[in-house]
């Protein structure tokens, strides 16, 4: 996992509810087998709408994305996070995030911060009125601050998640520390006749389509 | 002492590290000052054992690459099953794949399966199909299991009383390497559907009604247990349709307590427990029910007898109305939803007040992990039989698996569709997500049995209306939406 401690930068407001991951990265761009290179296709359809915030080049270089509720709903595609990363986004500040998307962000060291609807209204207003508005998202102090205005809010994060993000810990390595527990669990469960995917003795399963 | 929900029973028997260990770890971190002064209670994350890991070509290549880079083995190939479904052509499989990126992704799945010793149902295996169709079909999906897949519709398997949920690619890698996942424990929610459904009202209409009621984020952070007479009366395939779309209500998963129907469905399938183990399995499975005195974090109930066939009109699955209704007027919806409604209507090119039955369609798609099983295909065929697709409408059936396709052909259903002017394709996800060439042209309008009507989901500029297989079939014949209850009586 990538380490995260703080980000300071401009914020681009995505003022829509329930933004699904099909919008963030359409399925036709999921054919690649790499983890990067998705930035150019991020929000592909909405990039054709001149009113869409990402088309306003005053937001170019923004490292924070402001979002509404249930952002990242729908498909589990982690490519959505990789696409936002490709845009240079380091943290998302919104009302709420869909469960799988939130996990995917965490896995990539991209912080998701949840604030109230009123706070997001305020931040979006500021970002629209002055796209140069500088926002600081600080993980150690768990705060979001608008530079030079005194506006500051605290956010919640699970301490253990915070710990892992601050150190950029690799989840797999951490879990493998529990390998003796995993083995002990397997020893118990493997007697319980759970199904195996090892090849079965089925016949008549090969076919060739007719031309 | 309060009883336990079905969800809690399964979850708790899959925790690998004792919760005490996790607490001790946190305490140690707090004492050493590494967690700061934060409240260590926090959200609880458990390390869960995963009984079945389904993988496919689109969300696994980066995970295998991660394993390779770290030099890690795949811990349990015998609990991992691979297929190709999202990105496969549904026509012309005897020809080279004309899309080099697609061909490569399918090849890479094959290579990874070989290298890591994973059973793969490839495109020339009759068992190939949509990952959430083949799991139950082969008997891999059983009560009391934990099942994950890099696909949000993994919730489908919850129909068997399993905890099944979608994960991202980094988590796929974690499961490949450790056969476990560290997850925050979701809250529980009961959705009860009482009474009896009327004729022509299907499982698809029930789940669309539920999503309409609780909204696209109504289940966020929760696992839904579907209960009540309507659910008990459903076949296993109908239960799968309901659980499948749990994610469309934002839920982490959906599940239904197993019963005799569940056990009968599993019995004799290739990977079902052997005869020797059958009684022992039944004994374990019969414990899997929510205790009478268990408490859910949230509960909701609806009267099944009031549910009618649903049609979505907007760009998320909660934006729906019954077939006898009309396109909403933005001024009639809640202020908070007005802008989204206007936006959706503009995208869908629909005028407020238009009766649903007057909306003409260009394309019909029958298939997907929601409605691509044999019962769905039978139900659609019954509506189509002896009729013909309306002039100007392109309609296709994409069976959910090679075995569903074969069975439909044996039952004469394929002939009914072909005679009616439908295209009869090979198994895959196809137009549900528009990764392969099966897509809508810009501006085209579909009646689709799939699960998502997001902007551009079935192709850039395409307009999707989600319906049941019966409603889709009736629309194909009429060229516009019709109330299937009037067609079948």
The coarse overall form of chain B would be globular
Radius of gyration of chain B: 23 Å
Percent of residues of chain B in helical segments?
Answer: 25-40%
Structural class of chain B: alpha/beta
The 3D shape of chain A can be described as globular
Number of helices of chain A: 7
Widest sheet, order of strands of chain B: 4-3-2-5-6
- The first-to-last residue Cα distance of chain A is 48 Å
How widely separated are the two ends of chain B? Answer: 51 Å
Strand content range of chain B = 15-25%
SS elements, strand count of chain B: 18
The proportion of strand residues of chain A reads 5-15%
Q: Would you identify the regions of chain A where 5 or more consecutive residues have pLDDT less than 50?
A: none
Oligomer: heterodimer
**Largest sheet properties of chain A:** 4 strands, antiparallel
Helical coverage of chain A, percent range: 25-40%
Q: Main sheet of chain B, how many strands, which sense, barrel?
A: 5 strands, parallel
């Amino acid at each position: 996992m990538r380490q995260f401690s703080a980000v300071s930068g401009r914020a681009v407001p995505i003022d829509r509810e329930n933004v699904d991951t099909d919008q963030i990265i359409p399925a036709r761009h999921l054919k690649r087998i790499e983890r990067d290179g998705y930035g150019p296709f991020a929000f592909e359809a909405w990039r054709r709408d001149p009113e869409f915030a990402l088309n306003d080049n005053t937001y170019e270089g923004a490292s924070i994305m402001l979002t509404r509720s249930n952002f990242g709903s729908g498909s589990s595609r982690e490519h959505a996070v990789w696409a936002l990363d490709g845009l240079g986004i380091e943290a998302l500040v919104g009302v709420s995030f869909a469960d799988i998307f939130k996990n995917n962000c965490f896995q990539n060291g991209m912080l998701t911060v949840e604030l109230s609807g009123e706070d997001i209204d305020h931040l979006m207003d500021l970002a629209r009125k002055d796209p140069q508005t500088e926002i600081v998202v600080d993980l150690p102090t768990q705060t979001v601050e608008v530079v030079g205005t005194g506006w500051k809010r605290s956010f919640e994060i699970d301490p253990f998640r915070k710990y892992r993000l601050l150190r950029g810990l690799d989840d797999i390595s951490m879990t493998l520390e529990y390998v003796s527990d995993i083995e002990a669990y397997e020893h118990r469960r493997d007697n319980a006749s759970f199904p195996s995917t090892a090849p079965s003795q089925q016949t008549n399963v090969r076919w060739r389509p007719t031309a | 002492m309060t009883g336990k929900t079905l969800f809690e029973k399964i979850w708790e028997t899959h925790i690998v590290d004792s919760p005490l260990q996790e607490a001790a770890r946190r305490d140690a971190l707090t004492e050493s000052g590494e967690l700061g002064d934060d409240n260590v209670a926090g959200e609880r994350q458990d390390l869960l054992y995963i009984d079945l890991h389904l993988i496919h070509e689109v969300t696994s290549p980066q995970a295998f690459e991660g394993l390779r880079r770290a030099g890690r083995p795949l811990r349990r190939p015998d609990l991992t099953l691979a297929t190709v479904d999202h990105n496969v052509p549904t026509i012309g499989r005897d020809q080279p794949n004309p899309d080099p990126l697609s061909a490569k992704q399918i090849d890479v799945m094959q290579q990874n399966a070989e290298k890591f010793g994973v059973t793969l149902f490839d495109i020339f295996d009759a068992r190939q199909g949509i990952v959430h169709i083949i799991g139950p079909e082969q008997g891999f999906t059983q009560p009391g299991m934990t099942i994950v897949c890099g696909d949000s519709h993994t919730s489908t398997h919850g129909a068997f009383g399993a905890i099944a949920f979608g994960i991202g690619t980094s988590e796929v890698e974690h499961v490949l390497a450790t056969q476990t996942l560290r997850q925050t424990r979701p809250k529980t929610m009961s959705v009860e559907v009482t009474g009896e459904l009327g004729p022509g009202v299907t499982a698809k209409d029930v789940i669309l009604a539920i999503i309409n009621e609780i909204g696209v984020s109504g289940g966020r952070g929760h696992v839904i247990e579907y209960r009540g007479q309507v659910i008990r009366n459903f076949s296993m395939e109908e239960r799968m349709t309901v659980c499948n779309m749990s994610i469309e209500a934002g839920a982490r998963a959906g599940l239904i307590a197993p019963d005799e129907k569940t056990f009968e469905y599993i019995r004799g399938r290739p990977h079902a427990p052997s005869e020797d183990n059958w009684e022992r399995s039944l004994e374990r499975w019969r414990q899997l029910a929510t205790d009478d005195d268990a408490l859910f974090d949230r509960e909701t109930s609806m009267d099944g007898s009031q549910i009618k066939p649903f049609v979505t009109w907007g760009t998320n699955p909660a934006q729906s109305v019954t077939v006898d209704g009309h396109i909403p007027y933005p001024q009639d919806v809640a202020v908070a939803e007005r802008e989204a409604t206007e936006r959706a209507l503009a995208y869908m090119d629909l005028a407020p007040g238009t009766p649903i039955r007057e909306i003409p369609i260009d394309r019909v798609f029958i298939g997907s992990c929601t409605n691509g099983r044999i019962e769905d295909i039978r139900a659609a065929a019954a509506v189509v039989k002896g009729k013909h697709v309306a002039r100007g409408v392109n309609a296709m059936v994409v069976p959910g698996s090679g075995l569903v396709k074969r069975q439909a052909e044996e039952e004469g259903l394929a002939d009914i569709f072909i005679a009616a002017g439908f295209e009869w394709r090979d198994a895959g996800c196809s137009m549900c997500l528009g990764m392969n060439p099966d897509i809508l042209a810009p501006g085209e309008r579909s009646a689709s049995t799939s699960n998502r009507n997001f902007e551009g989901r079935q192709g850039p500029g395409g307009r999707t209306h989600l319906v049941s297989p019966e409603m889709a079939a009736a629309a194909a014949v009429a060229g516009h939406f019709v109330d299937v209850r009037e067609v079948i009586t």
